[in-house]
Amino acid sequence: MTSIYEKRLERKLKDEEWKKSMKSRNAVKAIGKADISMITERLKETKDKAPSSIKSKPYSHVGSLSSKWQQRTDKYLENQKLNPFSGHFGGSEQRVWDKKNEGYAIPVGKTMERWKKGNAYITKEIGLMIEVIQAMGDRDENGNIYVYFGRLFERYAKISTNLVGYLIRARKRGWLDFEGEMLWQRRDDDVIITLSDEYSLKDKD
């Protein structure tokens, strides 16, 4: 068992160690405060030395966003002046189209690529239809190949369901001709479809 004297001595030693630790902590804090004060003094000196004319403008997120939206609004209004279906259309900005221009009604970009692919596909299908007419048709007095729409419909329906559309496109290109704007099954079975001289395979003397 420890005596009362030893307990007092042990407690006294602990108290001295605690005081020493507190002194060291206070010293570290004082050094830190001194460093901070030195840094603030240097910052003040640099601000005092800097010219007074240079002042940093405060940055505002609201101001930057509002300017961006204003730019978008102005751009949208400019585009609407060229849109004939908008209320802002007209004025000096009104676009005038020249039908004689080479670039009139010609698609561009990806639309141009899709147009080329579609046009090539339709040309191929119309060529196949012309071959069918040449194979099954008869010749008229002028030597042109002709066929009745009813016969052609029965034969070509096994190949494609777009016969009427291809006939109309072929007529626009001048490859064949027939009467009427549209052809209907049964009603127009007796309509004669005649190929042009180029596609009637006439003998060239």
Layout of secondary structure:
Layout: H1 4-49, H2 61-80, H3 109-136, E1 138-139, E2 145-148, H4 149-156, H5 163-172, E3 176-177, E4 192-195
Antiparallel strand pairs: 1-2, 2-4, 3-4
H/E topology pattern: HHHEEHHEE
Number of helices in the DSSP assignment: 5
The CATH superfamily of the domain at 109-195 bears the name Costar domain
Helix content: 40-55%
The CATH top-level class label of the domain at 109-195: Mainly Alpha
Main sheet properties: 4 strands, antiparallel
- The assigned CATH architecture of the domain at 109-195 is Orthogonal Bundle
Strand content: 5-15%
Global Rg:
47 Å
Q: Measure the end-to-end span.
A: 141 Å
* CATH fold field value of the domain at 109-195: Arc Repressor Mutant, subunit A
Strand order of the largest sheet: 1-2-4-3
* Structural class by SSE content: mainly alpha
- Which regions have little confidence, pLDDT < 50, spanning 5+ residues? none
What is the tally of beta strands?
4
| pLDDT averaged over residues | 78
- What gross morphology would you assign? elongated
